[in-house]
Design goal:
The complex is a heterodimer of chains A (290) and B (362). Chain A is mainly α and 290 residues long. Helices cover 73% and strands 0% of the residues of chain A. Chain A has two domains: 2-70, no CATH class; 78-282, MetI-like fold (Orthogonal Bundle). Chain A has helices at 2-42, 46-50, 64-70, 80-111, 117-127, 136-146, 152-177, 180-188, 193-222, 225-230, 239-242, 254-282. Chain B is α+β, with helices and mostly antiparallel strands and 362 residues long. Chain B has two domains: 4-233, 3-Layer(aba) Sandwich (Rossmann fold); 240-354, Nucleic acid-binding proteins (OB fold (Dihydrolipoamide Acetyltransferase, E2P)), CATH 2.40.50. Helix content of chain B is 23%, strand content 33%. Chain B is elongated and about 75 Å long. Chain B has helices at residues 42-50, 92-102, 107-120, 136-148, 166-183, 194-200, 218-223, 228-233; strands at residues 4-13, 16-26, 31-35, 57-62, 65-66, 77-80, 154-158, 186-191, 203-208, 211-216, 240-247, 250-253, 258-260, 274-279, 284-286, 300-309, 313-320, 323-330, 340-345, 351-354. Classes of the chains: A mainly alpha (290), B alpha+beta (362). At the A-B interface, helix 8 and helix 9 of A face strand 6, helix 2 and helix 4 of B.
């Protein structure tokens, strides 16, 4: 009898494990298949991409789409290098600024008491509730009046404004986890307030700062709606906006679009991998008894 | 020479005053323990000495130099924090050498000083580990090592043992005492544990609600508590307190319990005065299981409610004058719950407190 109950339980456990795997597989498929589809399409001709029923197993892959993209304007080429540079300049600069402001703000929220603190904090979070697109028209007018349309600076300012509330919120959380004693111990050990921050608190919280950085970077790197309104020419168009170059009046060059999308994904992936290592390594606070 | 002097030091948070003008004179090389219940202002006082809290009024001087507005780094002090506050991203070696590195000392000197501190605290085998890879006791030792490595004028300890288990705590207590013998420095030590205070201190400062209640050697505060607060705070188990009244040359308590006025206090009490009698468990013992008493009271018959055998002695919980009191049995034998024993109280060792002021009459 006891044997039966044990077997029953073992059976149930196995069924449970199997169900979990199936659910996980479905969820991962939903997340991954579009990405894989893009990568796949970037290597094959439009005939295969548009085929019905869809062709899942590739019949022949080539680099034609990439060659064309980097080719001359007449052969379906787009200024990829220029778009990439624009994206990089705008994303990196806005991320660096957002992180610096985020660190100052997050640290202040984590460590200091001041009048209106919680109101300001909630106010910051509320800005996240406004959909970015709703701001596109006012932003367009402001940028047009100030001559910042179609400039790097204009987009950088917009992305900094978008990212700062989030970086402050995230970095605040990480500095909260760093016990104030550490900075005090450092001050007693001879540090100035500033040294205590850079030599002790920042190294301990840097994984958090890194994660805020990657979020800010990806937001700027992938942003399309506002960038499409505020950029005009090759001089300032970012990669997501550049994707539109593949649509013409009557046709859409899906293969080319996918190839550019792959180029967009690669830096983001590399960055995420680099920072991810950091995230896991840094998140242990062993110096203080938990 | 580092004498630490506090003169009328006050701390306010807004309108709330948490430390009310306390004055302390701590001699060079003295081991002073600030003890009191939580919220008594002892940690705040320590943090003011460290420079981590601003003082609202008064003066603090270290080694003759007024340090009121001096940042912590210029006070030449070291502090051991309750949760150790080790730098988690540095190895033990880097933790120990951090203050010297900040001071710009040459690497050879840092290595020598770290080696010396590691030797004193038996940390040699752990120098390349991170704090997260150490046990509680080892972390505690690293925290102390970080404090001794740069030969400060004053050591500050903020409840350094309260995160350790009882056995380790007893062990570290001895290590701290040994450390003080070795490195002859002024120590100010904050704890809420009266055992730590009694065992470590040259002088105990007992604080309550931001005031100093009493200061003196462990013996003095134990033998002559100035009020009922000190009497119950210092010593374990706490002193028994029975409220009563002086009537006809005797002390009369609830339920008709009466003892003669102790000789020590004969001149100090007036007829009809409300008093509180204080005595420790060691001064109330059952017949046949007691030491000789200087001034034994008449026999008191009491039933034992609960007994706590401790090996060399047994603690007896009984009821006297409607109140639970603790007595001690030497050379113990098993005691049944409810067993009636004959006790004597050593009146020579008793204290009388004024019922209104709670102050010791002597």
């Amino acid at each position: 009898m006891a044997m039966d109950i044990n077997q029953q339980h073992r059976f149930k456990t196995r069924i449970g494990a199997a169900l979990r795997h199936i659910t996980l597989f479905i969820a991962m498929s939903i997340i991954c298949i579009p990405g894989l589809w893009i990568v796949l399409n970037s290597f094959r001709p439009t005939v295969d991409i548009m085929a019905k029923p869809p062709v899942w197993v590739p019949r022949g892959l080539n680099l034609d789409n990439y060659r064309a993209m980097f080719g001359g304007a007449g052969e379906g080429g787009v200024p990829v290098v220029q778009y990439f540079t624009n994206s990089l300049i705008i994303s990196v600069t806005s991320t660096v600024i957002a992180i610096l402001i985020g660190m100052a703000g997050g640290y202040a929220f984590a460590r200091y008491r001041f009048r209106g603190k919680s109101a300001i904090f909630i106010g910051l979070l509320l800005t996240r509730a406004v959909p970015g697109v709703a701001l596109s028209l006012p932003l367009f007018i402001v940028m047009a009046k100030t001559g910042l349309i179609d400039t790097h600076v204009g987009l950088i300012m917009v992305y900094v404004a978008m990212n700062v509330p989030f970086t402050i919120w995230l970095i605040d959380g990480f500095f909260r986890q760093v016990p104030p004693d550490l900075a005090e111990a450092a001050e007693i050990d001879g540090c100035t307030r500033w040294q205590a921050f850079w030599k002790v608190e920042f190294p301990v919280a840097k994984s958090g700062v890194a994660s805020a950085g990657i979020f800010a970077f990806l937001t700027s790197w992938n942003e399309y709606a506002l960038a499409s309104q505020l950029t005009r020419s090759t001089f300032s168009k970012t990669m997501p906006v550049g994707l539109r170059d593949f649509t013409s009046e009557f046709t859409i060059n899906w293969g080319g679009m996918c190839a550019l999308a792959v180029l967009m994904i690669i830096p983001a992936l590399i960055l995420t991998f680099l920072v991810q290592k950091h995230l896991i390594a840094g998140l242990t606070f062993g110096g203080v008894k938990g | 020479m580092a004498q630490v002097l506090l003169e009328n030091v006050t701390k306010n948070y807004g309108k709330l005053e948490v430390v009310h003008g306390i004055s302390l004179d701590i001699a060079h090389n003295e081991f002073v323990v600030l003890v009191g219940p939580s919220g008594c202002g002892k940690s705040t006082t320590l943090r003011m000495i460290a420079g981590l809290e601003e003082i609202s009024a008064g003066d603090i001087s270290i080694g003759g130099q007024i340090v009121n507005d001096m940042p912590p780094r210029d006070r030449n002090i070291s502090m051991v924090f309750q949760n150790y506050a080790l730098y988690p991203h540095m190895t033990v070696r880097e933790n120990l050498g951090f203050s010297l590195q900040i001071a710009g000392k040459p690497p050879a000197e840092i290595a020598r000083a770290v080696g010396e501190a590691a030797g004193i605290l038996s940390l040699d085998d752990y120098l390349d580990r991170k704090p997260s890879e150490l046990s509680g006791g080892q972390r505690q030792r690293v925290a102390m090592g970080r404090a001794i490595v740069r030969h400060p004028d004053v050591f500050l300890f903020d409840e350094p043992l309260s995160n350790l288990d009882a056995k380790l705590r007893a062990q570290m207590r001895v290590e701290i005492k040994k450390l003080h013998q070795k490195i002859q420095t002024t120590v100010i030590y904050v704890t809420h544990d009266q055992v730590e205070a009694m065992t470590l201190a040259d002088r105990i400062v007992i604080m309550r609600d931001g005031n100093v209640e009493q200061q003196g050697t462990p013996n003095e505060v134990f033998e002559r508590p100035v009020n009922t607060f000190v009497a119950t705070f210092i010593g374990s188990p706490p002193m028994n307190l029975l409220p009563g009244r002086v009537t006809g040359g005797a002390l009369v308590f609830a339920r008709g319990f009466t003892v003669p006025v102790p000789h020590n206090f004969a001149e100090l009490v007036a007829e009809g005065q409300e008093i509180v009698l204080g005595f420790r468990a060691d001064n109330m013992m059952p017949e046949g299981h007691a030491l000789n008493m200087d001034e034994a009271s008449p026999a008191i018959e009491m039933a034992v409610i609960v007994s706590e055998p401790l090996g060399t002695e047994t603690l007896l919980y009984t009821e006297l004058a409607g109140q639970e009191v603790q007595a001690k049995m030497l050379k113990p034998r098993p005691v049944a719950d409810g067993e009636v024993l004959t006790f004597h109280l050593d009146l020579a060792q008793c204290h009388l407190f004024d019922a209104k002021t709670q102050n010791n009459l002597r």
